[in-house]
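Notebook entry, structure prediction.
Reason for the run: the old model in the group folder had no record of what sequence produced it. Starting over properly, with the input documented here first.
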Amino acid sequence: MNGFNPFVKIKLNKYKNPFRIKLFIVCMLAIPVFCFLVYGVYANFGGLIMAFQTFSSEQEKVVGAGFSNFQRFILLFDRFNYGKMIKVSFGYFAVVMFISTPISILVAFFLYKKVPFGRFIVVILFLPNIVPMSLLGEYYRQLFDPSNGVLNKILNFLLGFDASNAPAYLSNPKYSNLMLYIYTVWFGFGYNAILIWGAMTRIPEELVESAQLDGANLAVEFFKITIPVIWQTLSMVLVVTCMVPFTVYMQPMIINFNGQAETTTIALLAIQQLKTDPYYSAAISVLIACVSIPSVLIVRKLLDRVFPIVEV
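New structure, fully documented this time:
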């Protein structure tokens, strides 16, 4: 009986009950599993079924439609200028990939190098992600207001317009998409910058100091150390960027009032059709998924080959 402590035994037995442990695990997993089954599996499977259905006004019920919804998309492609919508959609991809993402990386790197007022800059960069997009959209529209908009007056001065012949930049098809691209870069790069900056802060200081002792300058540190070490996070940002042309719809819907002035994207088209013909909208969504999912998987596979995964 030497060394026996009954209180310790009772305490250990309390947590060794397998039924209680299993019940706790089941209860903790029940809600997320339920949400995944309802909003993930059921919702997407239901949308897939709807793509092959239509509503018959003669029979007054939903009937099978085969591939007619997909054929309708092909037949209406030129008539409703769907090619223009796809081009506009990939314009967002271009500005995010080649303008917004490089800006995010550079800003993150300078924050990582502890520039003055870095913490304040982090808050300012993340602020647009806290403010509701409807409020940001209204703010942006006010900046380009034909009468009192500050940016509107600056553009008129730079382009040589006056009050009598100045275009309405957000409602003129010649300028409207460019204005939305500027909005996307202006208010969109901050989130990725904070994400990438967070990955950079996990780089061991010993690694950087060793490279500096070997004579590495800022450029060598950036390309030979920083980028390879954060590549796992950066590749995730690039993969998400590849999804932009298939998912962007908020900018034209909020700022240009549901895609006016030829600003409709392919994702916004699916949402617009949802009100009039949800079955045709489901077919468009399936077509988008058939293109976007393989494309993203291929890009992800290619990015994984650029740098090996680095554990720090």
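Summary: The chain is about 70% helix and 5% strand.
The old model has been moved to the deprecated folder.
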